[in-house]
Specification:
The chain is of the alpha+beta class. It has 12 helices and 19 strands.
């Protein structure tokens, strides 16, 4: 199993993430070609260079805006030294810190007032792949939901001075492009270092983490205080929240390569994001998970399809329904949801808000899974992702991904069964040749 592991010992920002993924082996020319599909080339320049922090060599990325109205940028979440006199030196520090965070808010130009709907239109109307579009929108949604909650506004009423800025669009879509390029089976991360001290924002001076960052990192293990500055930005937090399935200090992988994304501020520790790529042993995997279930006898059955989609969107690993008979002969449906501990709260929120259930049973289960890998195969109709499963080192099962086959069938106007037949024929021929 191919694994990506984020070591966030000095936090994470959008530009550091791009730097680390490029340093890890993502092709820079490929990233530039994909980003050009956003049709924003006249608004920014992507600057990539090798750099060094505290003796650690890595890749530094800057997204420089073209035709900016001002030479320096202003960040509502810039960290302030907790020592006295910081406010007196604000203008001097402002200029210095502007160069430390390329995600910072720039002076209000025509780039700065894009809201979530504007960003969705840019991504949806681009020529990016469906997978990259979906992941980009998922990351943006993490920040949008946090900003809306912090400011007490509707999701589509919030104008993002950070997320709406071109540099953050490039950081987030670039992250989706790079993760898609690496095609890993699992993404893990360490607890996230958020830094310390205070930030100056529209609400005044408040302790780190900034409100949006704290909201995004709910239910994610944090560390703080390693330096008196902000080390994790909302964009960096959202990239983790939308992609990482497991947060743990234990990597438990055989490391193949390490990438370093270089930050901009000079700290007492190396200001870098370290990302590992490697493999976990191909043995049967035992996972501890939970079943949440409830009996429902008074709900319109048409609603189950909608509710299932919501449950899967919020992290359900499986959703299934069982026809049961309750007391007094009442017909009912038992709704069962398989979930890990990380997503339990969001699953309960869907059940209690969207169904007529008044209570849920919870019990722990152990799930034994075969190791899996995802590969793309070329067919006369286009590429199709195939999931292979292994038992004792031997491939024992394989299955084409339904969404890929469905997309081809619709685009080519052919029966979906024909797509499946073609995929199985190619797989069996290749296995025989081996």
């Amino acid at each position: 199993m191919k694994v990506l592991y984020y070591d966030c010992f000095c936090g994470i920002s959008g530009d550091m993430n791009l730097g680390a993924l490029l340093d890890l082996g993502v092709d820079e020319a490929y990233l530039r070609r994909e980003l050009s599909k956003l049709n924003l080339d006249d608004e920014y320049e992507l600057q990539v260079q090798k750099d060094n922090k505290k003796g650690i060599s890595g890749t530094r990325v800057d997204v420089a805006l073209k035709n900016a109205m001002h030479d320096h940028k202003h960040d509502h979440s810039q960290a302030l030294q907790p020592a006295g006199g910081a406010e007196q030196n604000h203008h001097h520090q402002q200029h210095q810190e502007d160069r430390n965070y390329p995600e910072a808010h720039r002076e209000h130009t025509h780039h700065e007032h894009r809201n979530l709907k504007d960003i969705e239109n840019i991504i949806i109307n681009s020529r990016l792949s469906d997978g990259v579009k979906k992941l980009s929108l998922a990351i943006f949604m993490k920040v949008a939901e946090a900003e809306a909650k912090v400011h007490g506004k509707h999701l589509y009423e919030v104008h993002f001075h950070e997320v709406g800025a071109v540099d953050s669009i490039i950081d987030i879509v670039g992250a989706a492009v790079c993760i898609d390029y690496l095609n890993v089976d699992k993404i893990m991360a360490s607890p996230v270092q958020v830094g310390g001290g205070f930030v100056k924002c529209a609400h005044g001076i408040i302790p780190i983490p900034a409100p949006a960052t704290a909201e995004i990192l709910k239910n994610i293990p944090l560390k703080s205080g390693i330096v008196p500055f902000e080390t994790t930005t909302p964009t960096g937090a959202a990239i983790l929240a939308a992609n990482v399935g497991t947060f743990t200090d234990r990597m438990d992988i055989s490391v193949e390569k390490i990438g370093y994304g270089i930050g901009h501020r000079e700290l007492d520790i190396p200001n870098v994001l370290r990302i590992y790529i490697g493999y976990q042993e191909s043995t049967n995997k035992l996972e501890e998970q939970y079943i949440l279930e409830t009996n429902i006898d008074d709900m319109n059955p048409e609603l189950y399809g909608y509710i299932e989609e919501k449950l899967f969107d919020q992290g359900a690993l499986d959703v299934f329904k069982t026809a049961i008979s309750m007391k007094k002969g009442r017909s009912a449906t038992k709704l069962s949801v398989l979930v890990n501990g990380e997503h339990e709260e969001t699953i309960l929120d869907v059940i209690f808000r969207e169904t007529t259930s008044l209570g849920v049973r919870k019990y722990k289960v152990e799930k034994i899974m075969l190791p899996r890998e995802f590969v793309k195969i070329s067919t006369p109709y286009g590429n199709v992702t195939v999931k292979n499963a292994y038992y004792q080192g031997e491939k024992v099962k394989y299955k084409p991904e339904y969404e890929d086959c469905k997309k081809i069938a619709n685009e080519k106007n052919i029966p979906i069964s024909r797509v499946y037949q073609e995929v199985y024929k190619i797989i069996e021929a290749n296995d025989y040749d081996k």
